[in-house]
TrEMBL record:
Top-level taxonomic group: Bacteria
Residue ranges constituting the VIT domain according to the UniProt record: 60-188
Any one Pfam family match given in the protein's UniProt record, by short name: VIT
Keyword Transport: no
Protein name (record): Trypsin
Residue stretches making up the VWFA domain: 355-533
Keyword Transmembrane listed: yes
Region (Disordered): 212-245
Gene3D superfamilies xref list: von Willebrand factor, type A domain
Organism of origin: Nibricoccus aquaticus
InterPro entries for the chain: VIT, VWF_A, vWFA_dom_sf
Residue spans of biased composition, Basic and acidic residues class: 214-224
Chain segments annotated as transmembrane: 693-710
């Protein structure tokens, strides 16, 4: 018995030791599972929240980056805009006043938007009573000049083109108590449409999203007209980040209550006939007429904010068009610009059917007002289709979804399905435009009909050149129309897409313009104003004329031809003619202009600057499609230096002659407030809200973590019951 007791005791000990080892091993395994669950959950959350870092929007501002982040040491005091509109030309002067109210010298960066058509030809700065005129230099040389002057203790300014319509100026050595006045001058062409002129002063640099090559690899989820789905995977988020330029990152803080700068604007319209129907849907303006001049003034009110573009529209009495031929002479060369009114639109008796692909941005930056406006626009566009037409709809953000794998007939049922698909969107995720465009341009096409691609977006991306090249390469026989939606859209992208697609661009800043723009689009599709346009010069020697090939005139706007010439013009002895020919709905059309009756602008240089701007656009387009990029860059540099023109490769630099600060004494760097574009809520960047795939990852992460917690609690409860059972047996 003793042996048995001893053996039994040893067996029980071994049993309990084994049980203990089992429980310890089980407990260790459970803990390991819990750790793994938490790690997986956290990893999924990190993956969901990563991918695209938002960049905030920026109004014109001095952003002084560095040590004391958030210090408001250089507030923008005021912005004053003076514009003179004479016929098809606008001369604009922008004056911004800042003050260093801190106690240490500052180095500032000034970022501001510009018109996509602006020829920036002069910049001056006044600091400490000194007026500094900038000179144009090659970009690298200008940067070295600025850095050298700054290190020597001189006040210096450097103006660069961060993007085509986003400029950046660095200002070094601004002393305490200084008031800094920055003056910028530019010229641009304005052209009426349907008899109405439009002039835009941009105030907000909207955020930009830069996608990555990864997003090009994804496939697309398809949704057919009946609501069924075809298996597929969404385009991955990529790892793109929102940034206009590496140097612009981090300089973002929103203007608070009472921090808004004073914004004033005065536009003078000079015409030979009375001006009527002056409107500004973005700001409250006052209009007064004095003789042959009409002044439009933006008074200092709460409405005068720089969180949205200022858009001025007007008509001339009788819907007259300020046009004709103008000539100029500058630095030994002669320039001309022709503005010619096309024939009236004639709707033909038979309108052939067409195929449409609508590409709609539903990303985070479109959340709210822009997306709701886009939905209304799409409703108008789709409802205007005829049953003989066919269409497809592609929605994009970080991923893409199409209505159908094939074009569908424009029946009420298919239109309802498309609107229902769009209606479910709330706006979220990044803005992967390039993969969406590529997918749209490769969608199957209906045989025997012409195709039009329609892009609807706010344009908050950084791929203007890439998109242009893609459309030029892939579009073939189709047209591409672009609609910009919002108070401060990326007009550079909207206009370049349409130019690449040989069609038209439109910006809709409010719901009130949706019906009007949809009707104009339908009219352009059904009855182009003029096709197969060609220009002939009779006894008028010209060269380097733009556009080199006239596109079809889809909208009711004047034809514009600009170039160089030799010989005489604007005189009785000039007997040459310019003849424009084409086909309208009424048959063959021809317009003639006598060279001898030209308006002489000799000595102003304005036509030279506008010609140089057109040449710059041509070179940028060639550069974008990879046409001898090194040669094109050299040509752009030469163009900028000759015409005193700000370009991607030439910059303005100004250096004071007086040393105002000890050499090597670094200036303080802080961040300055910026404005948030109207229609975007605080906290929104690009993207503003998670993509559906991101939401899925976050839900999965939460479920995994919850599962781990549940398993741990279950184990603890089970162990408690076991302990209670053992306690009861004892």
């Amino acid at each position: 018995m003793g042996f048995m007791k001893c053996g039994q005791s040893g067996g029980m000990d071994a049993f309990f030791r084994g049980e203990l080892d089992f429980r310890n091993g089980w407990r260790a395994r459970e803990r390991m599972r819990l750790v793994v669950a938490w790690v997986i959950g956290l990893a999924l959350m990190a993956l969901a929240l990563s991918g695209a870092e938002p960049e905030r929007a920026g109004s014109p501002y001095f952003a002084v980056k560095g040590a004391e982040r958030g210090v408001d040491a250089l507030p923008l005091k005021s912005t004053d805009v003076q514009a003179v509109l004479v016929g098809p030309i606008a001369e604009v002067r922008v004056t911004q006043v800042y003050a260093n109210e801190g106690g240490v010298p500052l180095e500032a960066r000034y970022v501001f938007p510009g018109s996509t058509r602006a020829a920036v030809h002069a910049m001056t700065m006044t600091v400490g009573g000194r007026r500094i005129d900038a000179v144009i230099k090659e970009k690298g040389e200008a940067r070295k000049t600025y850095e050298k002057a700054k290190s020597e203790g001189r006040t210096a300014a450097l103006l660069e083109a961060a993007r085509s319509n986003v400029f950046e100026m660095n200002v070094g050595n601004i002393l305490p108590g200084d008031v800094v006045t920055v003056e910028l001058r530019y010229s641009e062409m304005i052209s009426p449409e349907e008899g109405r002129y439009e002039w835009v002063f941009p105030t907000v640099v909207g955020p930009r999203y830069a996608g990555t090559a990864k997003s090009e690899e994804g496939r697309v989820k398809r949704e057919n007209g009946s609501g069924g789905t075809e298996a597929g995977s969404q385009v991955p988020e990529g790892g793109g980040q929102a940034s206009e330029d590496g140097r612009l990152a981090g300089a973002r803080r929103y203007v608070g209550a009472g921090e808004e700068p004073v914004f004033t604007l005065e536009v003078e319209i000079v015409t030979g006939v009375p001006v009527r129907e002056v409107t500004c849907g973005t700001h409250k303006v006052e209009t007064r007429t004095e003789g042959g001049r009409t002044r439009v003034v933006l008074p200092v009110t709460e409405d005068a904010q720089m969180n949205r573009d200022c858009i001025l529209r007007y008509r001339l009495a009788g819907d007259a068009i300020a046009g004709g031929l103008m000539v100029d002479e500058w630095k030994g060369e002669k320039y001309f610009m022709l503005t010619l009114q096309p024939p009236a639109r004639v709707t033909p008796a038979f309108v052939p059917p067409r195929d449409f692909v609508f590409v709609v941005d539903v990303s985070g930056s479109m959340h709210g007002f822009p997306l709701e406006t886009a939905k209304k626009l799409m409703s108008e566009l789709l409802m205007s289709l005829r049953e003989a037409d066919s269409f497809n709809v592609l929605l994009f953000s970080g991923g893409s979804r199409v209505l159908s794998g094939e074009p569908v007939a424009a029946t009420p049922e298919n239109i309802a399905a498309a609107l229902a698909m769009l209606g479910r969107q709330q706006g979220g995720g990044s803005t992967e435009l390039l993969p969406a465009l590529k997918e749209a341009l490769e969608l199957p096409k209906r045989a025997g009909v012409s195709r039009s691609v329609v892009v609807v977006t706010d344009g908050y991306v950084m791929v203007e050149a890439e998109a242009y090249a893609l459309v030029r390469e892939k579009l073939s026989e189709a047209n591409l129309f672009s609609f910009g939606i919002g108070s401060s859209v990326n007009r550079e992208l909207i206009e370049r897409l349409a130019r690449a697609g040989r069609a038209e661009a439109a910006v809709i800043e409010g719901e009130a313009r949706v019906v009007e723009e949809a009707a104009k689009f339908r009219a352009m599709i059904e009855s182009p104003v003029l096709t197969q346009v060609r220009t002939e010069f009779v006894d008028f020697a010209t060269r380097e004329v733009f556009p080199q090939v006239q596109p079809d005139v889809l909208a009711a706007r004047p034809l514009v031809v600009i170039g160089k010439f030799s010989g005489e013009a604007a005189s009785d002895g000039a007997g040459g003619k310019i003849v424009v020919k084409g086909f309208s709905g009424g048959g063959v059309w021809e317009g003639k202009v006598d060279v001898g009756g030209a308006v002489d602008l000799r000595g102003s240089g304005v036509l030279a600057q506008l010609w140089a701007r057109e040449r710059l656009e041509q070179l940028r387009d060639l550069h974008a499609v990879g046409d001898e990029p090194v040669k094109r860059k050299e040509e752009i540099v030469a163009l900028g230096l000759k015409y005193n023109l700000l370009t991607p490769y030439t910059s303005f630099v100004a250096v004071d002659t007086v040393v105002r600060k000890a050499a090597g004494d670094d200036a303080q760097k802080v961040d300055q407030t910026v404005a948030l574009p109207e229609g975007m809520s605080a906290g929104e960047g690009v993207p503003t809200t998670p993509e559906p795939g991101t939401v899925t990852l976050m839900v999965m992460a939460a479920l995994v973590v919850a599962w781990g917690v549940w398993r741990e609690r279950k184990r603890v409860r089970g162990r408690s019951r076991d302990n209670a059972g053992h306690g009861g047996s004892m």
